[in-house]
From TrEMBL:
The chain crosses the membrane at residues 12-35, 47-71, 83-100. Keywords: Membrane, Transmembrane, Transmembrane helix. This is Bm11941. It comes from Brugia malayi. InterPro entries: ZIP. It is found in: Membrane. GO terms for molecular function: zinc ion transmembrane transporter activity. Pfam families: Zip. It comes from the Eukaryota. The keyword Transmembrane helix applies. One of its GO terms (cellular component) is plasma membrane. It is a multi-pass membrane protein. The lineage of its organism: Eukaryota, Metazoa, Ecdysozoa, Nematoda, Chromadorea. The gene is Bm11941.
Length: 101
């Protein structure tokens, strides 16, 4: 929605960005599969996996806090409840991640 609002006269630009974003997930999956089947050493695989995970998590956090929550925060209603919900959700996911391994 923000792309259309920001670039109302550049429909092909918006469509190309949507296609690019839609293709990045399968491409990342193929990279992960190739990495698992590669002949890299265990340490090299761990480094590449850590970098890829960091990029994915950073993107997720950026979109959550700066795109979604910032727009919701601008409505001016129940700001404290919104931020409390974010903190509780973040905490629950963090606890689940601790017990995932």
């Amino acid at each position: 929605m923000n792309l259309i609002k920001t670039h109302p006269n550049k429909i092909y630009f918006v469509i190309s960005l949507i296609i690019f974003v839609a293709l990045t997930s399968p491409i990342g999956g193929f990279i992960g599969i190739a990495l698992e089947g590669s002949e890299l050493g265990e340490q090299s695989q761990n480094i590449v996996t850590a970098i890829a995970s960091s990029l994915a998590n950073g993107t997720f956090i950026y979109i959550t806090f700066f795109e979604i929550l910032y727009a919701e925060h601008g409505h001016g209603e129940r700001k404290m409840e919104q931020w409390l919900s974010v903190a509780v959700g973040f905490g629950l996911i963090a606890i689940l991640m601790l017990f995932a391994h």
